[in-house]
Amino acid sequence: DAGITQSPRHKVTETGTPVTLRCHQTENHRYMYWYRQDPGHGLRLIHYSYGVKDTDKGEVSDGYSVSRSKTEDFLLTLESATSSQTSVYFCAIRTAGPDGLEQYFGPGTRLTVT
Amino acid sequence: AQKITQTQPGMFVQEKEAVTLDCTYDTSDQSYGLFWYKQPSSGEMIFLIYQGSYDEQNATEGRYSLNFQKARKSANLVISASQLGDSAMYFCAMREGRSNFGNEKLTFGTGTRLTIIP
Fold first, then answer.
1. pLDDT means over runs of 10, chain B (118 residues)
2. pLDDT tens digits, A43-55
3. Which of B58, B105, B108 to mutate to test the interface with A (most CBs of A within 10 A)?
4. How many alpha carbons fall within 13 Å on the CB side of residue B115?
5. Closest by alpha carbon to A61, among A36, A24, A37?
6. What is the number of other CB atoms lying within 10 angstroms of the CB of residue A38?
7. Which phi and psi (to 5°) does residue B86 adopt?
8. Which of A49, A56, A90 sits opposite B45 (nearest CB)?
9. Do A43 and B103 touch (CB under 8 A)?
10. Which end of chain A is more exposed for a tag (fewer CB within 10 A), N or C?
11. What DSSP designation does B84 have?
12. A43: contact with B, CB 8 A cutoff
């Protein structure tokens, strides 16, 4: 358990509305990531953060923005949700354990855009 | 080109048998890492095992081992003595390069759904 929580766990929203997903970690990890999971695609990186106010884009960043004002919180915002953003969203942190640079995932948020 | 390829969309295995899940990768980096994750029906992603490109020994974690064949660019997951609780989706992932900036992001395969038959 890497101390990662995500909120909300489930959300249904309408096309065109803004949505913010929250990732919270309690172990002071520097690196945090947002992924989306879709059938046939595995997990794909949306954005990542390497410190407070330090973020960068992943491979599927269009339509998403992120913010990290505190070490423990990494927010993912859909400015104007579209049906193509219906997905399961996972937050992850990176540790530097004895086995290498491992990423541990939160429980996920299932987002449905109608 | 796919960076991570998992060619088995689904597998059915008898309980207590060993199972091998295939994963091939494509990278030009000398330094990289290979991971396996398990995703049960409850949805969480569970880290199983890691292999670094410079590790000479195959990684093992309990009943899990990673059969790392660098020349073939394969990193197959072997589960010994399968159990009903092993039924899940399994994802292979790769981290390329080494970085101090956290941008050594993971690239995932599309997964293999493993079903253990009693």
1. 88 97 94 93 92 90 96 97 97 78 76 96
2. 999 999 988 999 9
3. B105
4. 5
5. A36
6. 14
7. -80, -10
8. A90
9. no
10. N
11. G
12. yes
